[in-house]
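Notes continue from the previous slide.

Worked example: a multi-chain complex. Inputs as given:
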Amino acid sequence: MPELRKDPVSGRWVIISTERRKRPMDFIRTREAPKGGTCPFCPGNESLTPPEIIAYRPHGSKPNTPGWTLRVVPNRFPALRVEGDLGRAGVGMYDKMNGVGAHEVVIETPGHQDSLSTLPEERLKDVLWSFKERSNDLKKDKRFRSILIFKNHGEAAGASLEHPHSQLIALPIIPRELSLELDGAQFFHKYRERCIFCDGLQQDIEQEDRIIINSGDFVAIAPFASRFPFEAWIMPREHAAFYEDITPSLADSLAGLFHELLRKMDKVLDKPSYNFYLHTAPFNGSYPRTNEYFHWHFEIMPILTQVAGFEKGTGFYINPTPPEEAAQFLRDA
Amino acid sequence: MPELRKDPVSGRWVIISTERRKRPMDFIRTREAPKGGTCPFCPGNESLTPPEIIAYRPHGSKPNTPGWTLRVVPNRFPALRVEGDLGRAGVGMYDKMNGVGAHEVVIETPGHQDSLSTLPEERLKDVLWSFKERSNDLKKDKRFRSILIFKNHGEAAGASLEHPHSQLIALPIIPRELSLELDGAQFFHKYRERCIFCDGLQQDIEQEDRIIINSGDFVAIAPFASRFPFEAWIMPREHAAFYEDITPSLADSLAGLFHELLRKMDKVLDKPSYNFYLHTAPFNGSYPRTNEYFHWHFEIMPILTQVAGFEKGTGFYINPTPPEEAAQFLRDA
């Protein structure tokens, strides 16, 4: 069972992943080993993954056989384990709990060489829809308090497998980056009784210079305090705290804008590696009335610079590209 | 002038570095460009850096000429600028200020191929001493509130120049990672009237299994909630908030332990790339009575895993090596 441990000073949790326990030689070998071998995500290799949780496949076709256009499977080397109780406990002055959670992989397409920017828009919609479906299912588990959906695209972004996929981790706690946003939004809401994300978006739309795409339903912006060059956020224009409540027509609209943004990034930055993740409101009563002040959004970060000692030591980023310039390059692409 | 901008939701500051402004082609070129050329940190090339601020060199030898064993120079492409006032201002609902600060480089040795682990121990002491000297000088500037000293060793750690060097950035604000530690330590101190770092260290010494080296004056530990495999912290055994108050004899002792730790890491992990940074108390009255609850320490992180979407989206790390095992490998080396 993996273990969750909390740093007593900063309150930061970590997962000590005993399932993929690594010794010094494992790291040294990884540094030298070439990648390759059979792709467990390609059609025909369904037996190399745990059995699928959901799949989008022609009516009547059998689970765990080819024919699908999208599969969601448990991660074969999960960071957290679905079984067991939380087991919160102290170790002297330290705190730990069992590494309970869900870790799933969305295999976005059967095509090993595809990418989200080259897939047809309807297929990108399927990916976005699978995020909603899985979130709604995992929310029923009362042990979980939040879900992080994320993607590592390209080696520089930390992708360990080339085949297009994204990941979902359901957590028994609210992770720090999300709680910092929740706390900030709640604080603003107490004072102004408005959503801080809505206010920021309104100002960005009026100022225009940080807008990349505005499709009416969704807006892609280069945020005022972008950490990374060409960082982009996608936000719904109408206030909405829970991504998993998205309607089919809004998911269509989101797929259109997401697709356009990724294609613009590919064009301007020559197909960069990137990470994205989705920040959506936690559930099961973790924060009161989150629906009033939290606003879901995707954060997309092309990998163009390296995070080094200064960023690690301060949590403070040096961004060599003003977001207003990044937005213009992307807008014009 | 670089600009500091604050994310209104999370409170995170970023530096928008106009001095090194980068456009899309700059990133694409960097990805493809081979490194090389004249090293600005090698003896004989002193004119390629701004004039030295301090240097350790034989008595009577001229500034900015060869003969030195250590030089501190302003960064030629500083993330922040020394001149100017803070200029705090709002932009609608957003906050910004001038990118005022100091950015210096410690050229640790004339030897291009040296490393901190292969330098004689006395020379490592000089490096540690230069950190103290520069901190004491920069503290006099009332615009600054904190200093981050850090090192990127090896390409995987984000080092852009191969020649051994560390960096110092004096900031007009308290960066987030430091303020999270300060807030946590202050909170604990209110309740217990003790230093949380001292308590943790006491427990680690009693439990023994996370101790890498205990020299009496200093202890190197694998922290309970290590984010990274083989992460190590160096802490003074006696409570001390301000690194820059270190005495010559304690600096000797610190150099000995630091040297031993780096040599053990080189041995166990086959000369890994690494980052380290120093967390020391802020100054000029930013936090009241920090000397009672903050405890300076170095955090050293070999680069063995990649930080990807999950870590960025959550601030939550997955560590495949339990710190108790890491400590044992290093202890035994």
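Summary box: Chain A touches chain B through 91 residues (CB under 8 Å). The two ends of chain A are 48 Å apart (CA to CA).
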